[in-house]
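S.,

As promised, the magnesium ion run. Input:
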Amino acid sequence: MATVQTTAGGIPVLILKEGTKENKGREAQKNNIAAAKLVAAMVKTCLGPRGMDKMLVSSIGDATITNDGVTILKEMDVEHPAAKMMVEIAKSVDNEVGDGTTSSVVFAGALLEKAEDLINKHVYPSVIVDGYDAASKQALKLLQKISIKVDVEDKELLMKIARTSMYSKLVSEDSPILSQIAVDATKQVAEKVDGDSLSVDLDNIKVEKKAGGSIHDTKLIKGMILDKEVVHTGKPKRIEKAKIALINSALVNSIPLALAENAGMDPIDTMTELRTKQNKGAKWTGIDVRNTKVADMFKQDVLEPLAVKEQIIKSATEAACMLLRIDDVIASSKSKMPAGPPGGGGGGMGGMGGGYGGGVDME
Ligand SMILES: Nc1ncnc2c1ncn2[C@@H]1O[C@H](COP(=O)(O)OP(=O)(O)O)[C@@H](O)[C@H]1O
Ligand SMILES: [Mg+2]
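Predicted complex:
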C-alpha cells in the first residue's frame, strides 16, 4: 500500500513505492516539501517524554515498538527522494551525536512548512535560503551564550544529562540505573586531550545485549567481554590468571587452520608454531593431524602432486575474482527451466543454464 498525501493544490505525493513519476520546477518543489512534511508529521507524535510509540512491523511480521525517530525512519520503506533526505538528516544526526533525531526531522519539516507559506506569497526560494542561513548562525551563537561548561567530576550533573536523553525512551523508568552506568562507562574511557578538555571515543564502550533477565541486571564491566563460543568441546570453560593474546586480524590461513581445528588442536598455538617453523625455513612443515602436532610432513610421508596444489590456487583465485567482479545481480523474470514435477527434478541443483533458481549461466 502506498501512503498518499495531497498538496494544497491537490497534487498527489507518493512517498512509498509505487510506479514512477516526473515533476519539474515549481511542482517539484511543492511535491518535495509535501513529502518532507509528511515524514516530519509521522515522527512528530513521538517527540519528547509524552510522545507516543510506534509499532514497526517488518515484511515477515516481526514487530518492534519504539519512539526513536531514527529507528522509525530507518525501518520505513521510504521511496520519495525528498522523504529519503529527511531520513538521511536523522541518520547523520544519530551518527554524529546519538540523540536529537526526531527533533531534527520535526525542525526541518517546520522550516519547510514556513518556506511553503513564503513561496505562496511569491518570496523567491533563494531569499528564503539566505534568511534561514542567517537565522541558523544567530541561533548557534545564542546556544553558545546560554550553554554552561560541565566539570567531568560533577557526576550528578552528568547523570541528569544522561537521564534527560532517556526520558523520552521506553527505558525511562530505569533511567536512574542506566544513567549511572552510562556516566561511569563514559568516564572510564574519557581521555585528556590538550590540557583541560576530555575526549571520549564511543567505540571504546560496547553495549552487549543479552536476552532474558531484566534491565536491573545490567552491569558495567571495566574490562573486556569476548562473547565467543569455545573453539572445541574439550577446551576448559574456566581459566584463571590466563595470558590472553588479542589478535586484531583474522587467522586467514585456512586450510592449516581448518585442519588444526578439525583435529581438536588449539588453533592459535598451532598457527603460531607453524608460522615460526616455516619462517625459520622448515619448508615441509605442516599439521600432522594424526598425531595432533606441527611436524615435517615430508618425514610423515604426506606428499601431494604439484598439479593439485597449483590447480587449487588457480581455481580458487578465479572463482573469487569472478564473484568480486559482479556488481549487480539481476533476477530475470523469464525462467529457462523446463517445467518439472514439484519437489524435485526440473533442472536440478547446479544444472548449468537452468535460469535463476536452477543454476548459473556463465558467458
Ligand atoms: N522531562 C522532560 N520534560 C520536557 N521536555 C523534555 C524532557 N525530557 C526531554 N525533553 C525534550 O524532548 C525532546 C527530545 O525528545 P526525543 O523524543 O528524545 O527526540 P529526539 O529524537 O529529538 O531526541 C527535546 O526537546 C528535549 O528537550
Ligand atoms: Mg532524545
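Residues 339-363 have pLDDT under 50 and may be disordered. Residues 125-146 form the longest helix (22 residues).

- D.
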